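Researcher: Batch entry, complex prediction.
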Amino acid sequence: MDEPQSTSRKQQGGTFAPSQRGRFFHWLDLRTGVDSLLHAALDEPIPGGASLAYVFGSGLLFLFVSQIITGVFLALYYIPSADHAHTTIAYITKEVTAGSFIRSIHAYGSSAIVIVLLLHITQTFLFGSYKGKRELLWFAGCVLFALMLGMSFTGYLLPWDQKAFFATTVGTNILSEIPWVGNALKSLLRGGTEMGTLTLSRFFVLHVFMIPAFIFAGVAAHVYLFRKAGAAGPIQGNAATLKQSTEPFYPRQVLFDIVFALLIICGLGLLAHFSPMELGPKANPADTQYVPRPEWYYIPVFQWLKYWEGALAIVGILVIPGFVALLFVALPFLDRRPERRPWKRPAAVTIYAIIFIGLGVLGGLSHRNDLRDPAVASQLAKQHEDVVSFMKAPFEPELAGSSLAAANVALANPLAAKGKDIFEQQGCNACHGDGGVGTAAAPKLIGVGAKYDGAKLEALLKQPNSKMTAGGMPATTDLKDEDMKALVAYVQSLK
Amino acid sequence: MLEGNDGNSPGAPPATSRDVSLSSPDRRSFLGVLLAVGTASVAALLSVPLFRFVLHPLLRSTTPLSWAEVGSVDELAAAASPIKKLITVEQRDGWRKIVSEKAVYVIKQANGQLTVLSSICPHLGCSAAWHSENNEFLCPCHGGRFGADGKLLGGPPPRGMDRLETKVEDGTLKVHYQYFRQLVPDKEVIA
Ligand code: FES
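Model: Structure tokens for the complex:
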């Protein structure tokens, strides 16, 4: 990144003679250029010196890496399908060693990212660090902000519990408010008109492959543009004193950054250990009582949307948020004065404060409404009880598809149940296995009902075809008609 | 910490200030080593839960023996000849369970003790069935024959019918269902 500088340093070079840096390091450097890499990474000048105010960016990078690591590990046990997602998350939470801890770090990590991101944006805003040829840097940051919101939105669905399912149903419903293309967009995102297993697959792919790829690119661009523009430094001070107090990134700023990362991971670790992330009962799309609530940082938006109904919805859902987002992205173009001190920029700071205070107020209102409406309050309390009792219950493994289910289906139908007895009396199970699962001697019968209808099955039983005879299948001749019907019913029930 | 920039001539470009700070490589590398060791130890500490997470299936060693109920001892002991029983066997496979029904035969030994035989023929795995008219177990596939105690009487099977581990709890006979290798003369557990 810092190519010209590192080259110039190499030319000055005496300080880095092999005798001083060790022969191995020299050997490695000749082959990898690690010295100039380290130099580029660590010796970036910070005008005005290291400061605790600058730790948020690297804190975000740290959290992103932590999310990648915990996410990859969670994928070791997780299955993105409506059938298994909830079971596998319950398995991680209740059975797997350290599973609840790692899942909690990942889930709380997304909240931590939102918090640190808001701090990072606020610091950048108050310090006016977006000024001075930093429009693209700010823009890359805005894109990363949006991608991060996309990550938390898509990740929220993956456990496939009640709250995930219904919050995402509401969240995706918002799309249909967009004129003309809204419904098409919603169906595209859901993989159909309703929420289902295809929605989960889509969210999984977005959460695990697509958005992370864009985030990688975004982070690379953001860091590159940051290094290109240089650190903005303190908000005031004349050029000479700033130059005087300039110090490299390493060691003091590195130390600050490491301390901040440690604080984050300690906080997350304590939270994960003492208040592990909960998992609710499996999503039940037929539940009409459920009152969905999104993750805390979406609550203000959720509350905001409540005020816009009918013809005005488009204003509240699209026009105003779109306008605010545009204002936000275009900030470095709108505010071009070099002035960086916040107290000299009252208009910008006031708008910023109004937006954030407004979001806070909306969040508070939503909370108050929930408490005041007795129906909602009692339903929310009940939902919480369900979560608590689900968490207390031991892990219930999922019945594998090839299991007794077939036998149970058979037993539900009395004719087939009778057929099962005949199947065993006739010794069919000797070769075809109990429940028709097949053995070394004869193929499985599960699924033959789909291949042949009842009449054909009966005919084959009475007179096996040549291939069956060759395999040792005897003709079934000594059965009463009704017993034959029962046997056929049983064989057809084997699915 | 590193305000040793003072020796720097005031007019020098900022890049030089870094070179000066590097001119005390001892201090710098000592701090570097300290930081590297500190970071590495914290990272090692943090990776402990990750290791435990990955190793979970191995540390949980073998799935605990699951015992399937066969029936009440009194009732089974009353029978004169081998009785067929269907037991429900539950196998755990990570987050799922596989439930299947297996046929076993309960036989009474000369000393009155109950023994449970797997009905799977040790030849190629068909189900041997009790035929009271011949007073022996017959395997329909290749004509393997076994006595009322499960001993091999004739046919291609390499050994007698396989006995399963049993225990009695509160008057109920329980069995630990297992599979055994086919076509070998000695009983050998496979799963
Ligand atoms: S499988 Fe039983 S005799 Fe061959």
